[in-house]
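thread: overnight batch results

M.L. [08:02]
morning all. the overnight job finished for the chain we discussed friday. pasting input first so we're all looking at the same thing
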Amino acid sequence: MKLKTFLIGLFLIALSVGEVSSQRTMSDFFYDEGAELIAKLAHPTNTFSYARYTVYKEYVHIKIFYEKDYTTELRLYKDRGIFYSISVIEDTDLISPFFFIELTKNIAYSLIREASPDLISQIESVIGKTLADMTGRQLSCVALTIAWWDY
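M.L. [08:03]
and the structure it wrote out:
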């Protein structure tokens, strides 16, 4: 019951937070933590080295550099402080970006569904999406948005 209350509270807080103060910019966010976060979401088993990015009004273009010469180039679409889509422009790793996030979600979803099917329904009603159908990219958008709002 405590886990259920915690998860619902977390989603409600995330959904209720407004636009971030203008004192901190999106560029600051990517410099301080956003670039490394999206790098870990894309390829959690790779070691992040650095990123180059440009923030535009409707998206962030980012090229991530990992150790062992792997790179990932993404376009992160945003609207009013919410990341809603990710396009993979180029990726040199053998494993697709965001694969591990989706795999982890599938395992967690199965475990939670067996233990508490009502919890799944409650979370889905709060976020307005079916968790089983969410991709690794969509989950990464949620994580990136929450991190931006918290920044």
